[in-house]
Amino acid sequence: MRIGHGAQLFEVVPGEPMGGYADRSHGVGGVLDPLEVHVVTFAACRHRFALVVADLICVNTDIAERVRAALREVRIDACWVAATHTHAGPEAGCSPGGEPTPPEVARRLLAAAVGAAKAAIADEQEARLTSTRAHIAALAGRRTAGAPEDLDIPVDALVVTTARGVTGVVTVSPVHPTVLPADHHDVSADLNGAIRRALAAPGRWAVAATGAAGDISTRHTRRGRSPAELDRLAALVAAELPLTPS
């Protein structure tokens, strides 16, 4: 199998509406950490699949179909388009059942996805894919329970290994990335971005996706709502997740 990775910045516009919290009225102020669109490609037996992970509150079916169509033009046969669900990014039409994606957000997401996909294809090399899981204590818990409940959160990872060693990792954490508060004005990938930074290293890329979070968040485990707390929680994941292939 040949595996590649590419990433592009998702540009934001100062003042554009922010998503994630219903009572939020302010627009984008600045950038705490850049929003990114990552693409990982997997090619084997004349078929290429791409995982697209965007730092947005959601991706609706309208833009997902446009991304799929555009990636077919660059020789990607199938793809899965996902959002990290960061609440510190632009509004993307996130409501029950989905809404049309704001045109400017859709345009920027499409351009970033195509750019990242082209970079991933160019990066492809022979690799081995293994899976691993770690159960992380004190990362998150049930947010609406009557009393905080201690949970060990399962964080899954796909580890990419080439002749040079571990060159990439894709994590899936079933946790709402909501460390930063509703009155925060600067865009951020929130917990997923912090996990990426904690796991990346020279010669090793990292992609952090969000799984089926349901009722799980950091509401009762976070010790603050600052960038330092993002780093602390991400360090819990990095410390427990084994990246050495078995």
Name some characteristics of this structure.
2 domains, 30% strand, Neutral/alkaline non-lysosomal ceramidase N-terminal domain-containing protein
Structure description:
The protein folds into 2 domains: 2-123, no CATH class; 127-240, no CATH class. The protein is 23% helix and 30% strand. It has 4 helices and 11 strands; from the N terminus they run E-E-E-H-E-H-E-E-E-E-E-H-E-E-H. The strands form 3 sheets. Strands 4-3-2-1-5 form a 5-stranded mixed β-sheet. The chain has a 4-stranded mixed β-sheet with strand order 6-8-9-10. Strands 7-11 form a two-stranded antiparallel ribbon. It has 246 residues and is of the alpha+beta class. This is Neutral/alkaline non-lysosomal ceramidase N-terminal domain-containing protein.
The amount of beta strand, in percent, is 25-35%
Largest sheet: 5 strands, mixed
Order of helix and strand elements from N to C terminus: EEEHEHEEEEEHEEH
Distance between the termini: 18 Å
Protein name: Neutral/alkaline non-lysosomal ceramidase N-terminal domain-containing protein
Question: Outline of this structure?
Answer:
This is Neutral/alkaline non-lysosomal ceramidase N-terminal domain-containing protein. It is built from four helices and eleven strands, in the order βββαβαβββββαββα.
Ordered list of secondary-structure elements with their pairings:
Blueprint: E1 2-9, E2 36-44, E3 47-54, H1 61-72, E4 78-83, H2 103-123, E5 125-126, E6 128-137, E7 141-142, E8 152-162, E9 165-173, H3 190-199, E10 205-210, E11 216-217, H4 227-240
Parallel strand pairs: 3-4, 9-10
Antiparallel strand pairs: 1-2, 1-5, 2-3, 6-8, 7-11, 8-9
